[in-house]
DNA sequence: CGATTTTGACCTGCGC
DNA sequence: GCGCAGGTCAAAATCG
């Protein structure tokens, strides 16, 4: 065998079984850690290493003449290997970052594509509608309105500039997200950056991430207002979770601050309003209310998107709401038509577990966790165990907890034009819309993460629902206040 | 004393 | 235009 091969073998001996040689350089915990990691990533690695060591032992016992110089070379070689290992680790980290970035860019492009497709659909619908009803309407106004929905996915907070540029619709630069630079150049972050730069109607700076419910209206055209309204709908899509709990609040991992309480019509229990306080300006809010018919059921309704990293516990809920809202709004559905049908959508895995409500005022998806889990063990809903605390939904990190920003399908195609539906899932009115089981199955197929996330969330919630959130010792109980008390 | 909750007032959208 | 209901604000009260 060539000397180089011997050196490699001895070096690996040292690397793998550092105490075999009296001259080995500290293998240390790092090497142990490395070997464990390598065995984890490449099963059989340790066996291969052991084979190499045995080979090396044989070589050493048969040839020890140049051992001194060999030991010197081993030290050098070991240093080289370690340097190489560090370089590989660094490269690995870089590759991971790159992968994340590619993921981010992929989702940004995907959303952009969907928004463009929707624009096209809107354009067709608008032109046919215009032909029938408003022949004398100015072409400029029409053109202005058509592109707003798609544009606002990208240019939220830049409406004035958008108005000026709207005519030049063919300019792709203004709508394509900047994918060229630093990680996270996504539509989401683009929107968030622009929010930071945006101002209130009074000219005051907006808190980062804050999406005011009272969006300033564009008074340029009716279409603009409609687009604004649509965008507001998208931003206000809700995910409602029903769970039996004696606790005043389900622990969802986030910190909340109560900012209001009202008596809701038809329910003796007050509705409490909470705002996420994990980051300044986080727009996420939630409502807590007990079901009127069964006050052991606590209904938690989430609205908005976190603008900050979430702890694993919070990511559970956030990802669930993200996936659920995604199923509602973009639906993971191939077509805007025929997805949500007037009757009967439930998750095929568990009757009444998930209800999609696309009714006014805001689209809501309800996760009903009040059914007896013994009838259908949660872990049978999906063969894959919840992958927490890792990327539980399979969504890029920036999407976690951002159920709304990622919705590309304008709600105009999903929203019912009629009626008001109570936010409380138990009281969903006639205008509640369901998705056909087949359609939902298609949705699940298209978005398999949804089921996984849902199961994980349910597991989490069931575990948490019976213990009070010590950090959220808010009471929604005895005092019924507000100017709407009747 | 700062953070949080309470609670009456106010704002907005919607239906009539 | 008016009233109702949902949602939010913000000062006062309370808590730790």
From TrEMBL:
What does the record list as coiled-coil region(s)?
78-105
Q: Record's InterPro entries? A: WRKY_dom (IPR003657), WRKY_dom_sf (IPR036576), WRKY_plant (IPR044810)
Where is it mostly found? nucleus
Keyword presence, Isomerase: no
Q: Which SUPFAM superfamilies match?
A: WRKY DNA-binding domain
Tell me a Gene Ontology molecular-function term this record carries: DNA-binding transcription factor activity
Record domain WRKY: where: 245-311
Gene Ontology CC entries for this record? nucleus
- Which locations, inside or outside the cell, does it occupy? Nucleus
Q: What is this protein called?
A: Aspartic proteinase A1
- Keywords, alphabetical: Coiled coil, DNA-binding, Nucleus, Transcription, Transcription regulation
What is the organism field in this record? Hibiscus syriacus (Rose of Sharon)
UniProt region (Disordered), positions on chain: 122-211, 464-486
- What PROSITE patterns does this protein map onto? WRKY
Feature: compositional bias, Basic and acidic residues: 158-177
């Amino acid at each position: 065998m060539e000397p180089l091969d011997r050196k490699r073998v001895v070096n690996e001996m040292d690397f793998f079984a550092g105490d075999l040689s009296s001259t080995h350089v500290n293998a240390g915990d790092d090497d142990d850690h490395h070997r464990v990691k390598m065995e984890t990533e490449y099963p059989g690695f340790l066996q291969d290493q052991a084979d190499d060591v045995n080979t090396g032992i044989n070589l050493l016992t048969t040839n020890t003449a140049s051992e001194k110089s060999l030991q010197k070379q081993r030290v050098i070689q070991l240093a080289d290997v370690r340097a190489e290992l560090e370089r590989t680790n660094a490269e690995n980290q870089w590759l991971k970052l790159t992968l994340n970035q590619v993921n981010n860019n992929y989702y940004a492009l995907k959303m952009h594509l969907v928004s463009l497709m929707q624009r096209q659909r809107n354009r067709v619908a608008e032109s046919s509608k215009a032909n029938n009803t408003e022949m004398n309407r100015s072409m400029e106004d029409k053109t202005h309105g058509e592109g707003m929905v798609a544009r606002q996915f990208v240019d939220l907070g830049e409406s004035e500039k958008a108005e000026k540029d709207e005519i030049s619709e063919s300019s792709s630069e203004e709508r394509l997200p900047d994918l060229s630079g630093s990680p996270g150049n996504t539509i989401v972050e683009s929107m968030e950056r622009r929010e930071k730069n945006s101002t209130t109607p009074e000219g005051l700076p907006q808190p980062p991430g804050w999406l005011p419910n009272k969006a300033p209206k564009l008074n340029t055209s009716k279409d603009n207002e409609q687009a604004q309204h649509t965008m507001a709908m998208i931003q206000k899509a809700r995910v409602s979770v029903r769970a039996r709990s004696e606790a005043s609040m389900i622990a969802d991992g986030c910190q909340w601050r109560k900012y209001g309480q009202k008596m809701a019509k038809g329910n003796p229990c007050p509705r409490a309003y909470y705002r996420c306080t994990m980051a300044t300006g986080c727009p996420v809010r939630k409502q807590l209310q007990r079901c009127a018919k069964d006050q052991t059921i606590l209904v938690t309704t989430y609205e908005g998107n976190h603008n900050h990293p979430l702890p694993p516990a919070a990511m559970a809920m956030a990802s669930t709401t993200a996936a659920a809202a995604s199923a509602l709004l973009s639906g993971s559905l191939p077509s805007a038509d025929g997805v949500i049908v007037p009757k009967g959508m439930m998750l095929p895995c568990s009757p009444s577990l998930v209800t999609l409500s696309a009714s006014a005022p805001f689209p809501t998806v309800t996760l009903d966790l009040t059914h007896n889990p013994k009838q259908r063990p949660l872990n049978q809903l999906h063969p894959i165990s919840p992958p927490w605390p890792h990327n539980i939904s399979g969504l890029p990190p920036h999407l976690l907890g951002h159920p709304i920003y990622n919705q590309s399908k304008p709600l105009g195609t999903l929203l019912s034009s009629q009626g008001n539906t109570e936010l409380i899932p138990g009281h969903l009115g006639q205008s509640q819309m369901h998705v056909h089981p087949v359609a939902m199955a298609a949705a699940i197929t298209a978005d398999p993460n949804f089921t996984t996330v849902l199961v994980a969330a349910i597991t989490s919630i069931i575990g948490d629902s019976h213990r009070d959130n010590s950090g959220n010792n808010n009471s929604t109980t005895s005092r019924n206040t507000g100017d709407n008390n009747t």
